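Researcher: I'd like a structural prediction for the single chain below. Treat it as a standalone chain; there are no partners to consider.
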Amino acid sequence: MNRFFLIIAAVIVVIGIVVLVWIRPDNARSPASTAPAAVPVQQFDMTGGQEMRPRWDAREEQGNDAASN
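Model: Treating it as a single chain, here is the predicted structure.
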């Protein structure tokens, strides 16, 4: 008899979980969540800093050119 009640209890728990998942509100489909959140535009300080230079010098640059056809 104990095994029978344990099986019945497990079935009831599984059915309860299925019902809760089925009836829960689906937030992904709600109209309020379809609009993107307003994100302020980031402002970066572009003053000062370091001069940008290529990582190679003129000799290496010539060897990396594409072959002409």
